What we know:
By secondary structure, the protein is mainly beta. The protein has a single domain (1-57), classed as 2-Layer Sandwich (Alpha-Beta Plaits), CATH 3.30.70.20. Helix content is 9%, strand content 14%. The strands form two sheets. The chain has a two-stranded antiparallel ribbon. The longest helix is centred in the C-terminal third of the chain and has 5 residues, at 43-47. The model has no long low-confidence stretch (mean pLDDT 97).
Amino acid sequence: MAYFITDRCNRIGACLPVCPVEAISEGDPVYVIDPDKCIECGACAAACPTGAIDPPK
């Protein structure tokens, strides 16, 4: 499982530069995380100022 971005995302982009495997990309209407690339490090969730990134379930 991978982290995922919820509809709380306001597209600030703080998560993009912190992902070590470049698993995050711009989606419509929110950013998306590629589950095949995500290594579940949590860097994106820690960087998100709106708390829009949730851990794997």
